[in-house]
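Internal QA ticket QA-208
Title: Verify multi-chain structure generation after dependency bump
Assignee: T.L.

Test input:
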Amino acid sequence: MCVEKLNIGKKLYNLCLAYLKIKKGTMFINDESLREFLLMLSKQFTVVAPIMETPGKPPILSQLNQANLSRLELKVRPLTPYKFFFQPPSEELFTYKLGRKLVELGYEVKKPENLILLGLRNCDLKALEKLDMVMLEEPADPFYKSKRENILLVSLDCSEPCPACFCTEVGLKPYPEEGYDLNLSRVEGGYLAEAGSRRGEELLKRFESLFTGESEGQLKQRDERREAVYRKVKEAYTKPIRDLSKVGEEYFMDFTRRCVECSGCVFTCPTCHCFYISDYRRRELGGRIKTIDSCLFEGFQRVAAGVNPRATLNSRLRQRFLKKFVYFKQRYGEYGCVGCGRCVEVCPGEIDIREAAGLI
Amino acid sequence: MSLNPYLPRLAEVLEVKEESPEVKTLKLKLKEGRMEFKAGQFLELTVFGVGEAPFTFSSSPFNLESFEVSIAKVGSVTDAAHQLKGGELVGVRGPFGNGFPLEEHKGRDLVIVGGGIGIAPLRSLLYALVAERSEYGDLKLLYGARSPSLIIYKDEWEKFMEKGVEVYLTVDVGDETWRRGPYGPCGYTHVGVVTTLFDMVKLNPERCVAFVCGPPIMIRFTVQRLLQLGFSASRIYLSLERMMKCGLGKCGHCNIEGYYVCKDGPVFQFETLKDVPHPF
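Actual output:
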């Protein structure tokens, strides 16, 4: 229901714009002003962005400040997924105080203040939409919902897709069309900035002096660049995604032999949402937390009496691949994978999800 | 309902009954409101300070004053649940899941097959059935436990027989008590796994529906036997267990292929699962 509400909100917003014949404010900002814009943003907000920490390695997400602004990486997408800002590795669900014949329960849904995530690509935005389908499905997770409603998203067109990128093969485009507050598209000498929400427009307005109106040529250039990147990713693949519901379990054995069960793929995956729930207690005070979990861990489905329905690594790896390409689609109507390629980059066993999916 | 679906409601333990050396039944009552559920649905029980675990309701869904769960001692939460005393508070979330589809099988014969602690949701089912006894044809219960001392709800089986349920009990390994009764008058002196009870009953697959719950190996052989007897896969219902953590279809722990046991189950038509590699 909440997903629908969000979508209705977006649709309504777009409809209003169309009715008022207002073109979504697309503005131009040159490289020098962008630097100033980001610097000012980082002073007024907590801005988290891809920072190049180790040359030659993918950037990681870090808080943007004056000192690391020069290492801000806007071409290559970060290895860290943005999901942790919505589904933290550990989060408190409620606390309790135990007394004699008395239990007091309490919880707090924290509202993230002034947090901007910068550098999300379309794959990251679509991944959040997929997380919405799970976490906002009634009854919605209030902790996730609060973050989703309050965190500002500044996205980017992909200008340099990674060798492992395959978003086009799961039906996505390498540039955002919706779901952002502000989107930046690389053009000659700077970026085109487009607001995708009221809050995005406010952001543009607040820093109005740094922006200029866009020219027809710049829009054309943006579209050409978008098309070129789309073609670059698309042309790397010639085979369609295989129907994994039709392959036998032995199909996954080759990958299983190389898997060390580290779950790097799960933790860097922007759509993996599984979590564990457990309690802690200190004397009369206690609480319950949800923590990040992985379907590759041996105990993921083991029940108290000891029965483990997915005792073999092969069955667990198969589960992960089928969750992305079969189960998520059965349940929510689309793939559970956004083709970002993070799992390919991170795997020490060189397990390639594109190979499992039959793309290469 | 709370805006936080992870937050349990408080319930008081009214009574603790020792059913066997391994199983206790807790009778619970919500501090506020009533627990309305269907036979076959489950709840998440919190023992404060220890944790939360899923259990199916084992009492009659028609009793709105209190509800029961029967808990086998197998892990940390269940160990702690066995320590609970009357008057203590626990947390409950739920009901979750689908429950047994009784409406669509009114007028039919039902055979209910339980193994071990799997009898718990079937007891709830039996109470639901005898409350509307005239709505159904023949009711048969086949229930097996590992040993006579592990047969639970001992004082209830005769009452179910009086209410028109044919009850057949069996144990894997008998002992002195089993051979001479106390179940002698009812004829419960059978020894053998639960599927051997099928030799003692006459079932008409044309007009009969099977409800099965028990350990995976028992379910596997029971399904095999039912299919041999001529039951169609759509007339066999299984109550399955997975590690249901959140009960909301979010945590991902309880899936069987594309299904979540917490939302699409825990009761599944065998038809749905017959092509799944290892459903049980």
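Spot checks passed. The first strand of chain B starts at residue 9 and ends at 18.
Status: verified.
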